[in-house]
Amino acid sequence: MIPWRFLIFAGVLALILYLHFYLAHRQWRRLKGRPSLEIDVTYVRMEDCLPQSFRLKVKEWLQLPAVTVTGTERTILKGHERIRATGPMAIGDRHESDAIWVVDGDFSCGSGCEFFREIYTRGSARIGHGSRLQSLAADGNAVLEDGVTAARWLDSTGEMILGTDCRVGARVTSRTAVRLGMGGRVLSVFAPRVSTPGSNGSPSSQDLPPSGDLVEIPPPDESSTAEQALLDAGVDPKKVVRMSADSWYYAGDLTPSRPLRVGAKLIVKGRCHLPPRSAVLHDLKADGSLHIGRGGFCEGNLVAGEDIYLAPDCRFAAVVHAFGSLLVSEGTRGAGKEAPVVAYAGDGIWVENNVVVCGKLASPGGVMVVDAAGAEDWRKRKKIQTSRLLRV
Question: Would you state the pLDDT for residue 287?
Answer without folding.
Answer: 94
